[in-house]
Amino acid sequence: MSIPHTPPHPGPVGLAAPAPAGPVGDPPGPAVRGRTRIGGLTIGAALLAGALMVAFGATAPSRTPEFIAQTDSTGTMTFEVHEREEGSWALYGNTEDALLCRHIAPSGATPLAEAGTGWRTDDGRWVLLGVLDTSEPGTHTFTCERERHGVFAVGGSDVVAATRDRRILGVAGGAAVAGIGLLVGLGVVVSAAAARRRPAVAPAHE
To answer: What pLDDT, in 10s, does the model give residues 161-175?
Structure first.
């Protein structure tokens, strides 16, 4: 009768040593912190520059133009228009009632002025009543025949155009600078935040 072979007991099984933990994310380095600061400064500088440009445009001066003819509400004034001066002259007044005067072209036609848009000189004395149709060269006449207090004058329209251009440039340019700077700054900040998180998910050592 054979006795079954019993293998020796292996003895107590030792617990495996725990694997060393992977490195905890290192604090952000100087380069990452520097990029975050640069992004913040870019945003701040862009918003400040945009606000200054808008303010610059909003304070565009409305200077009094040089007048070539002037009359009161019961008088007549004439002025000469040369070739290629279409749109170069405008009617101004100390009242917004442009119907007090009638424009007579050299041919006898009575063209209507292009309506003004509330433009007023800084001293408050003159209002733009309209840019004149001066496509016909020669002597143009303004006849004012109503018994009402008022003063009217013809002057260059370039002052009005310069004021409007500066205001448009200030508002549009300021918005563009602020918007572009904001996008660039946010991009830098987001990329720096992504770089800061990257070490925290580094693979564990074997």
So the answer is: 888 878 788 888 888
Residues contacting 3, CB < 8 A, separation 6+ = none
In single-letter form, the type of residue at position 199 comes to P
Max CA distance (Å), the chain: 149
Residues 6+ apart with CB under 8 A from 58: 167, 170, 171
The rounded distance, in Å, linking the Cα atoms of 141 and 133 is 12
The Cα–Cα gap between 120 and 95 comes to 11
Strands 127-131 and 67-72: unpaired
DSSP conformational letter for 98: G
Report the distance separating Cα 154 and Cα 76, nearest Å: 12
Q: Are 142 and 103 in contact (CB under 8 A)?
A: yes
Question: pTM for the full model?
Answer: 0.59
